[in-house]
Amino acid sequence: MKAIHDPHGVLAHGLAAIRSQYQVPAGFPPQVLEAATRAAARPLIDHADRSSVPFVTLDPATSTDLDQAFWIEPSGADLILQYAIADVAWFVDDGDAIDVEAWRRGTTIYLPDGKAGLYPPVLAEGAASLLPGGPRPAVIFTVRLRPDGEATLDSAERALIRSRAKLAYDAVTAADLPPAFAEFAARMDAAEKMRGAVRVDPPEQEVEALGDGRYGLAFRPLLPSEQHNAALSLAANLAIAAALQQAGTGLFRVMAGPTAKAMARLRSTAAGLGLDWPQSDDLKAFERTLDPTNPHHAAFMLAVRRAGNGAGYAPWIPGVTPWHEAISATYAHATAPLRRLADRHVIRATLAVANGKPVPDEVEDAFRRLPAVMAKADATSGVIERAVIDLAEVVMLQGREGERFAACVTDLDGESARVQLVDLPVITRVKLPGAAPGARVELRLDSADTASRRLIFAPTG
Predict the structure, then answer these.
(1) Burial of 247 (C-beta count, 10 Å sphere; 0-12/13-18/19+)
(2) pTM over 0.70
(3) How far apart (Å, rounded) are the C-alpha atoms in residues 404 and 336?
C-alpha cells in the first residue's frame, strides 16, 4: 500500500494487527525459498547482449525490486523507447514451487512498514531485479512514439542489460536522464488529452508529527519525475495491448466508468468541498482542472479513486474490444512482473507475438484463469489499504475527541449518511436523518479507537 507513509512508526502496533487479521504472509515456505535460490543461479544463456545501451532505472530511493530500466533516442520525428523489463519468467517455471506460491499471492502487498512480496527476495530484490551493474536478464520492448503520441511496438527480445544508475524520484536531475525524457512524457500527455483520458493520480498521504504526541495526514503531490516515468509504462502497455489484440490473444486491464450513483456522490462531494464543478463539464474535464497541492482538490481526487467501479482483467474474446475507461484505450499490464502475477504471462505472450511464434498453451490457459486470481488479490490489497487508511485517520484524530469538524454529505442510505470532512482527507458514516446530498454539516468527534480502527462522529445540532 503506497498511499500512506509512516516515517515515525506511529502506526506500528495497528499495522501488526492488520497483518495478523488479514494473514499477510511474513515470509515464504522453505521449499519456495530453496527453489528461488536454485533459480537465482540459473545460467543466462538465451539473451542477446545489449549491455552497451545506457539503461537507467527511476524509482523511490529505497526500492530494490526494480522492474523497469529505460533509454530513449530520437529516430527522425519519432522517439524510440527501449524499455527493459525484469525477465521473471527466466527464473520461474510453470508449476514449480515459486510459480505455485505466486499464483496463491497474486500481487505484492504493500504496507507502510514493509511489503509481502510476490516472489522471494533472492529473486525480486536480487537476481531478477534490474539493479545497477549486471549483467541482468530482461525483456526489452522497443516502443516507437510518434509526434502525435501514438505508441506502437517495434520489437521484443530477451537481452542482458547493465543499468548505469539507480535514480531516485526525489533526487534525479534532467542531466541524469535521456535528453528526450520530458519530451516523451509531453507527447503522451498530449495524446491522453486528445482521446479524453484522465489518469487520477491523487497525492500520497504521509503521517506527520505535529508535536505534543499528535499526528496528522499530509498530502504529498507526485513529483514531475514520477509523472514522467509513469508515461513510459503507459506507452509500453498501450503498445503491447494493441499488438496482442491484433494477434487475437492477451490479457487486458479493463475498467468501466463510475455509476450514476457514484457520479451523484461525486457532485455532492465537490459541492461540499466548495469546488466549482460546472454542470456542463463531465468528470474528466473537471479532473483536468484539479491542483493536487490544494487540500480540497486532493481530497476530491481521493474521492474519485474510491468512486470508480474498480479495474479488472479480461482475456481476449473474439469480437470484443477490451476497454479501460480512465485511459480511454485498450490497455494491458506488462511492466511490473516482480509485483503482479499477470504481467509475467503477458510478457511471455508479447515475446511470442512480436517474434512470429505461437503463444504457449500454458500462457493461453493462464489468461483464462488469471482474471479470478487477480480479482481476489486486488480485493485483498484493497481491504488492507482501507484498513491502513482507517488506522491512519484514527491516529490522526486521537486526542481530538470533543472537537467539531465541518463536513459535507456525499450520499445517503436511509438515516445513515456518508460524509467527507471538509478540511481533512477523512470519509466516514454518521446518522443524519433528513440530510441531503451536498449539505454542509457540523460533526463532533466522540471516539477515535485504534483497536477497532473506527471513528465515531455525531451531529452537533
Answers:
(1) middle
(2) yes
(3) 44
Whether the Cβ atoms of residue 272 and residue 262 lie closer than 8 Å to each other: no
How many angstroms from the chain centroid is the CA of residue 321? 23
Angle in degrees, CA 276, 278, 281, rounded to 5:
125
- C-alpha 62/C-alpha 154 separation (Å) is 33
- Quote the distance between the C-alpha of residue 241 and its chain's center: 18
Based on C-alpha coordinates, what's the Rg of the chain? 23
Which amino acid is residue 148, in one-letter code?
D
E-strand ranges in 303-415 read 312-315, 404-413
**Hey, CA dihedral for 239, 243, 245, 251, is it positive or negative?**
negative
Q: Of the candidates 86, 236, 231, 90, which has an alpha carbon nearest to the alpha carbon of residue 151?
A: 236
pLDDT tens profile 217-273: 777 778 899 999 999 999 999 999 999 999 999 999 998 877 888 888 888 888 878
Tell me the sheet residues that pair with 115. Answer: 110
List helix spans (H) across 273-308.
283-287, 295-307
Report how far residue 347's alpha carbon sits from residue 139's, in angstroms, rounded to the nearest whole number.
8
Least confident span in 52-56, 88-92, 126-130, 214-218 = 214-218
Contact by Cβ (8 Å): 98, 91:
yes
Tell me the sheet residues that pair with 219: 205
CA distance 297 to 299: 5
The three three-digit cell numbers of residue 250, written as one number: 492477451
- What are the structural domain ranges in the chain? 4-256+310-397
Q: Which residues of 277-303 are buried (b: 16+ CB within 10 A; e: fewer)?
A: beeeeebbebbeebebebbbbbbbbbb
CA nearest 120: which of 141, 97, 136, 152? 97
C-alpha cell at 105: 499471492
Q: What is the pLDDT of residues 147-188, one digit of tens each?
A: 999 999 999 999 999 999 999 999 999 999 999 999 999 999
> Apex CA 355: angle with CA 354 and CA 360, to 5°?
90
CA 127 to chain centre: 24
Bridge-based pairing state of the strands 204-211 and 166-168: unpaired
CA distance 407 to 276: 17
Query: Are 257 and 311 a contacting pair, CB within 8 Å?
Result: no
